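#lab-general

N.A. 3:47 PM
ok so I finally got the sequence cleaned up, no stray characters, all 299 residues accounted for. can someone with queue access submit it? mine expired

B.Y. 3:52 PM
send it over

N.A. 3:53 PM
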Amino acid sequence: MNGYSYIIKYIICLCLLYISLFLISNIVKSNVDDEPFVLNLHDIEKRSISIDKSDYSVSAFYPKFNSSNITKEMKDFIYGYINDFIKNDNHKNLDIDYEVYFNDEILNVFFTIDNSLNDTLFYKSFNYNLINNDAVAMSEYELDYDNIIDLLSKKYSSDIVETINSLPYKDYNFKFTENGIHIYFNSDLFNTSYVPELYIDYNNEILIDTSTDRKYKIAFTFDDGPGSYTKELVDTLKINGSTATFFMLGNRMKYNQDTVLYVVNNGMEIGSHSYSHKNLDKISDDEMQEEINSTTIIF
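B.Y. 4:20 PM
back already:
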C-alpha cells in the first residue's frame, strides 16, 4: 500500500511540475508578445525558393523577420501561389521578388509576381501597424479614398474607375516609399493587359516619380482625320483632363468643317498631314508644296 501511495504522490508531483512549467511558459510568452515589435534591417533575412523542371521554373524570394507570425504569413502566401502555379498544366516561368519599407509606424512588404502564364505582373502587399503590440495587419491606412478615386478619374477611363471604386479594400496593394505611396489594383475585371496604378504623395497629390530627375511625358497624336470618331476622341480626352494633336488631311478637313471647329474649340491642337496623304518622298517639290500649302489654306 505504501508503494502504491508513493507512485500516486510521484504522479501528482509530475503533473504539478508540468502545470507549473506550462503556466510559466505562457506567462513568458505573454510578456514577450506584449513588448512592442522592434524591426531592424539586420533582422531581415532573404529566403529563396528555386525549382527548375523541364516544363517550368520557379524563382521566388520572401523575407524572414524576427517575428514568426509575419514570416509565416509571407511564407504561406508564397508557397500557396507556387502550388497553384504548379497545378496548372500550362507551365512556364514564375518569378517572385519583394521590397520592404518600414518606419516607426508601418511595415510594408510588397511582392512583384511575374507569371508568364498570363504575361502580366501581379502585385501583393502586406502592411503592419508597428505601434500595435502584436503587429497586427492593418485593415486600412489613413488615406482619403474619395480623393484616390478622383485622382484615378484623371488618369483612367470611367469604366476602369468605376470598377476600382467597387473593389473591396483587400484588392488595394500599397507600395510605400519615403515620399509617397504606389497603389496597384489587381483584378480580372479590368480586361486590360496592365494593372491600373496610382502614385500619390502623403498629401494625396499626384507626383512625378521622384526616383529620377527626368520628367517623362506622353504626347497623343491622331492622324488622317477628321473622321467619324474624332468628336468622340475629343470628348474622351476632355473627360480625362487630357489633350492631343490631330494631324488632319486637307481633303478631309474640307468636307468636315464642323468637326475641325469642334476640335479647335475644345482646346486640342491641329497639325497638317498634307492634303491627300501622298508619299512626299516620291513627288516633285512643287507637288509637295501644293500638298502642304493647300491644307494650310483650307484650315
